[in-house]
Specification:
single chain, 315 residues, Purple Acid Phosphatase, chain A, domain 2, seven-stranded mixed sheet
Length: 315
């Protein structure tokens, strides 16, 4: 028998359980994906299978939280354009956040550097103020602020009483220690604070933040992998406690699907109840997460794993 087990602020509905869709006329669904396509098989088989399934579903939009190639593959214009074209096959609006594999981890060659690849990603994927996909939605870009004119990839949008915000925060260490880090970190902190400010001003029911990197909640602040996330997580904790309503952080990077509550209060040493982390599936597990928002539900957000039948492996 299929049973659902409600948790505070979230309901994780496993494959085969009844869908959260239709719980309220105030609700809507959207898809969360990431870390795909990683190779030729993904690009020609697994990823198209997933796109086809998502296109058949009544999604409001789709969010890809980064990594459109394997780390060791060339960061070529050809690959970027191929992925752009594939993103345009989504019937729904597609919002894409940059991952480390497509810029910060790109090998330095005579023709490319990580900073140059970041500029190229902006040129290809961040044109105008509309999302990708066959149907589009308007995106607010941080570059509209002259103080942060370079950061077109940091985006914000709203739907159904929820504020959504996307960030350029790449794994596995947020490019910490590199010359570009300080200014990008400053931009991300401003975008984070501004998103919570807007959510409070608009009396939003909840807020969802999306980035590529796993911010390593579980590591000590002194750990090298954690160092590039400390300031972001400090601001996130303070804003989440002040906001009091549901806050969800979505990321990819470690290719391990999970939904949990890893954010601890530094003073209380207890889990912050109105915060939930969702990590999306990633290669070789090319599946997706259906997210549901119901503004009449005190929990606001619920999530359901969607296993693409064509992408199942034989065990």
């Amino acid at each position: 028998m299929c049973r659902s087990f409600p948790l505070l602020l979230l309901a994780l509905l496993w494959s085969g359980c009844s869908s959260p869709r239709g719980a309220s006329p105030s609700g809507f669904d959207f898809a969360l994906i990431g870390d795909v396509p990683y190779n030729e098989f993904d690009a020609t088989n697994s990823f198209p299978n997933m796109i086809a399934e998502i296109n058949r579903a009544p999604m409001t939009f789709v969010v890809h939280d980064g990594d459109i190639k394997a780390g060791g593959d060339p960061c070529s214009d050809e690959l970027f354009h191929r992925c752009y074209d594939q993103f345009q096959t989504f019937a729904h609006p597609l919002i894409y956040l940059f991952g480390d594999n497509e810029w910060s981890d790109c090998p330095r060659t005579n023709s490319h550097t990580p900073d140059e690849r970041l500029l190229r990603l902006r040129e290809i994927f961040c044109k105008g103020d509309q999302s990708l996909g066959q149907r589009t939605i308007h995106l607010e870009r941080q570059s509209e602020d002259p103080a942060f004119a370079a950061y077109r990839e940091n985006v914000r949008w709203r739907h159904g009483g929820i504020v959504f915000a996307g960030f350029n925060i790449p794994g596995s260490a947020n490019n910490f220690g590199k010359p570009e880090f300080a200014e990008r970190n400053k931009a991300n902190l401003a975008w984070l604070r501004g998103s919570f400010d807007k959510a409070r001003a608009e009396n939003a029911r909840g807020i969802m933040l999306i980035l590529q990197a796993n911010p390593h909640f579980e590591l000590a602040r002194t750990n090298k992998l954690r160092a590039g996330f400390n300031e972001f997580l400090d601001v996130l904790e303070g804003e989440t406690v002040l906001f009091q309503r549901p806050v969800v952080l979505v990321h990819g990077d470690s290719h391990y699907f999970r939904i949990d509550k890893p954010l601890l209060g530094r003073r209380s040493k207890r889990r912050i109840e109105n915060f939930t982390r969702v990590e999306t599936f990633g290669n070789p597990d090319v599946h997706w997460v259906r997210a549901h928002v119901d503004a009449e539900d005190p929990n606001v957000f619920s999530f359901e794993q969607r296993i693409v039948k064509e992408n199942l492996v034989r065990h």
